[in-house]
Structures are given as structure tokens and as C-alpha cells.
Design brief:
mainly beta, UDP N-Acetylglucosamine Acyltransferase, domain 1
């Protein structure tokens, strides 16, 4: 046992855990795990939980991950640099995610999904299997991406596709197999039953188009709220922000 691993933690000798990685109390790291340099794994976490899917492969966390307490990651997923979680998240096998992913407290990622760069999910988000999520997507609390057209079923699943720069506001639900177009906005509590065109605001139950998202003004009337890249840059890489300043002046 070394100083960077708490004495109560259990880390398999087969796991790859660099010496600068901090592992907290009562955390369990299985053998089929590779943790990137500079990562922090807090207390009571489980990394590399065995998957029911045969030959799932390793759990790979890129450099600089921060996994907060009581989080469970199954084996068989790969995450890019800078993964950050809240507390008590569950992440199943078969996820391929880019850099800068933020997973909020009590989120449930059901696995077998593809996620781009710098996706931010707030608390209590449910990502169904076969979801495809682009880059720079915002997913707010209690959003549900469904995948079963005729629940309960034990066969065909159709995941939701969310394109780049989309905003999914709190408590909205997206039905199976739908496509949410780039830079579109789904309003709070909306039930989306049809594909959403790019740059569109949809709201209601069932959701219907409210026109261009760019018609929504900021609270101080200083300009349009969307596309949000016009005015919100906090936490994004400087190279990305510089590109946005040219594309969305």
C-alpha cells in the first residue's frame, strides 16, 4: 500500500493506478481498470464493476478525472481527459466519451452510448442505452433520454440522438429514436415526440415548435439567449472559446 491509496481502499494489483492518483477510503478498484494521471477517486467508489456483457474490456479514465464519493463505474467504458462527477453516479458498460464530460450527482448512465466533448449533465439525468450525444451539450436536472418504443420489451431499442450545442432543460423527456437538431432548445417539462429541427425551440406536452431559438432574449434584454455560445464561455478551453467568438460574434 502506498501513500496515495487510503489504507481502507482495495486496489487490484492488476489495475493501472499511477502514483499521483489519490484513492479515498473504502474505494474498490477492480483489475480491469486504467486510471489516468492526476486523477482523484474519492471515498466509497467502485471502479471496474464486473459487466454482465461478455468481453466488455477495461474501464479507462483519462487524465485528471475527479470521481466523487459513492460513484460506481462498470468495466468496459472509455472516458477522455477531465471527467468530473458528482456523488452517487452509476455508469454502466459500453460508453465511449470524449474529454471534459461532467456527470451530475445521482445520474444514471445505462451504458452502450456515445458522448462527445464537453458535455455537461446536471443531477438526476437518465441516459438510456444507445443514446448518441454530440459535443457541447447541456442536459439539466431530471432529463430522461428513453430508448424502448414499447416498454417493457426485451428486444429492439432505439436510442435518442442529441446533436452539438443542444440545451435540454429540466425535466424534459425525449421519446425513443428521435433526433434533436444542433443548437436547438427543449424547454422545461417538454415531452418530445417528434424530431426537432436545428436552431428550434420546442415546448409543451407534446412538444411543438415555438420558432427559432434565437428569438428568446436574455433576461437583461442585452441580446439573444441562443445560440448560447454568443455569451457563455465559462469553463471551456480557450481555443474553443476563440473559435466561438469568430463563429458567433
Amino acid at each position: 500500500m502506498t501513500d496515495h491509496i487510503h489504507p481502507t481502499a482495495t486496489v487490484s494489483e492488476e489495475a493501472e493506478v499511477p502514483e499521483d492518483v489519490q484513492v479515498g477510503p473504502y474505494t474498490l478498484i477492480h483489475g480491469n481498470v486504467r486510471v489516468g494521471v492526476g486523477s482523484v477517486i474519492e471515498s466509497h467508489c467502485v471502479l471496474g464493476h464486473p459487466s454482465p456483457t461478455p468481453n466488455s474490456g477495461a474501464l479507462v479514465l483519462g487524465p485528471g478525472a475527479l470521481i466523487r464519493s459513492h460513484s460506481v463505474f462498470y468495466e468496459g467504458s472509455t472516458f477522455g481527459e477531465g471527467l468530473t462527477t458528482g456523488h452517487r453516479v452509476t455508469v454502466r458498460e459500453g460508453i465511449q466519451a470524449g474529454s471534459g464530460l461532467q456527470i451530475g450527482t445521482l445520474c444514471d448512465f445505462q451504458g452502450h452510448a456515445t458522448i462527445g466533448d464537453h458535455v455537461r449533465t446536471h443531477s438526476n439525468v437518465h441516459i438510456g442505452q444507445k443514446s448518441i450525444i454530440g459535443s457541447y451539450v447541456w442536459i439539466f436536472p431530471y432529463v430522461v433520454l428513453t430508448n424502448d418504443p414499447h416498454p417493457p420489451s426485451d428486444g429492439f431499442l432505439a436510442g435518442v440522438t442529441v446533436e452539438d450545442y443542444v440545451v435540454l432543460a429540466t425535466m424534459c423527456t425525449i421519446l425513443p429514436g428521435l433526433n434533436i437538431g444542433t443548437r436547438s432548445v427543449v424547454a422545461a417539462h417538454a415531452l418530445v415526440t417528434k424530431n426537432v429541427l436545428p436552431d428550434t425551440l420546442v415546448a409543451g406536452v407534446p412538444a411543438r415548435s415555438m420558432g427559432l431559438a434565437s428569438r428568446v432574449m436574455l433576461g437583461d434584454d442585452s441580446g439573444p439567449a441562443y445560440p448560447w455560445m454568443h455569451h457563455f464561455h465559462r469553463g471551456y478551453p480557450s481555443a474553443v472559446v476563440q473559435r466561438w467568438l469568430k463563429e458567433y460574434p
